[in-house]
Write a structure and sequence with these properties.
The chain is mainly α. The protein contains 19 helices and 3 strands. A 3-stranded antiparallel sheet has the order 1-3-2. Helix 11 runs antiparallel to helix 12, helix 11 packs across helix 13 and helix 14 packs across helix 16. The longest helix is centred in the middle third of the chain and has 20 residues. The chain is globular and about 80 Å long. The two termini are 34 Å apart.
């Protein structure tokens, strides 16, 4: 059994059948959205974990303890792979945490800024709880200054005499929709009148479960809260989502792709967008990574003939091991790295569709 959150996360992000780069996955978990990070996250089928390390306050993976325990083996170029024992431990972990709920939470995490939503929600609960009991002097929980300002403004806009009762009613309905352990976790973390709230470590001990399972259930709870409140009319919590929507493709990349679809000319796009060629190409790769196979114009950049030559040249080699530097001189002279990466993206989407 893996006791640490970091160790359990290592099991989730590494694979028994695919060598994976430690540093690249760390970049993924901390939300570093480079094309290289996004591409390999797509290859690893981990795109939904982009930035999730921030939620768990993890920015480095502690691989060595799992190597020493025989769960992970190092390969080459800072790559690692799960051993047979590691694969079994991963399967047990996924069974323990309910994979479908985890997938739902991670998908929601990519659509909504759950970190800031949680801060706003918990501060609102504290403020309204203290008001209901006519307490004016208290220490607000430590949240980001922007979220504190948001709640101040929101608090002035609502009917404060009715807000406490409305919030209580919504929370009771939400809590009744959760399993007992998750409802207990959710309630124990809240701060309010005569209630300081417990840490994840304290709650995990109270529920007799691993810290990682508790932390994941916390993430799942807030994903479920977003879904629950979004479906209610006149919810007092739903407005806390304002401004917290996230988009997989950056606004700039979307604008570049839109211009390309209209102009079908890279030089004209560079001129219209006032961007360097390298930036335009990075934007197109980002869009390709997140766009379904049929939604991106691959044939505008790589002909059938050229693609077939590349595929024949690399026949029998996993896309993970494709290397632009190892193409023959003839092929590399007719294929840019941008085109090569597009082909890798296309082949990946064909393999997993």
């Amino acid at each position: 059994m893996i006791n640490s959150t970091n160790g359990a996360l290592c099991l989730l992000v590494f694979s028994s059948h695919q060598k994976r780069r430690v540093r690249l996955i760390e970049n993924l978990l901390t939300g570093k959205k480079t094309v290289a990070t996004l591409y390999w996250a797509m290859r690893y089928q981990l795109l939904d974990l982009l930035g999730v390390g921030r939620y768990f306050n993890i920015n480095q993976l502690e691989v060595n303890p799992l190597v020493q325990n025989g769960l992970i083996m190092r390969t080459d170029n800072d790559q690692v792979q799960l051993t047979a024992a590691g694969k079994q431990a991963k399967e047990e972990l996924i069974q323990e945490i309910n994979g479908s709920d985890l997938s739902f939470a991670l998908h929601t995490f990519q659509k909504i800024d759950l970190t800031n939503f949680k801060q706003r929600f918990q501060l609102l609960v504290q403020v309204l709880s203290e008001r209901v009991h006519h307490v004016r002097q208290y220490y607000p929980i430590n949240v980001d200054g922007t979220n504190k300002a948001f709640i101040k403004k929101y608090y002035r806009q609502i009917d404060r005499d009715q807000a406490g009762a409305l919030l209580k009613d919504e929370l009771n309905q939400f809590l009744s929709s959760l399993e007992f352990d998750r409802a207990s976790l959710f309630a124990q973390e809240l701060v309010g009148f005569n209630t300081n709230g417990l840490t994840m470590q304290q709650i995990a001990a109270n529920l007799n479960q691993s810290l990682f399972k508790t932390a994941l259930n916390d993430l799942i709870n807030y994903a479920k809260l977003v879904s629950f409140m979004s479906q209610r009319d006149h919810s007092i919590v739903a407005p806390l989502l304002n401004g917290l929507s996230k988009h997989s493709v950056s606004t700039s990349a979307e604008e570049t792709f839109t211009e390309y679809q209209q102009l079908r000319d890279l030089k004209q796009v560079e001129k219209r967008r006032k961007l360097r060629e390298s930036t335009v190409l990075e934007h197109l790769l980002e869009v390709a990574i997140y766009t379904p196979l049929v939604g991106f114009p691959y044939r505008d950049f790589v002909s059938y003939d050229l693609e077939n030559k590349i595929i024949r040249h690399l026949s029998g080699i996993s896309v993970d091991d494709w290397d632009y530097q190892q193409l023959s001189d003839f092929l590399s002279n007719h294929l840019s790295f941008f085109q090569f990466r597009l082909l890798e993206i296309k082949r990946t989407k064909q393999d997993v569709k």
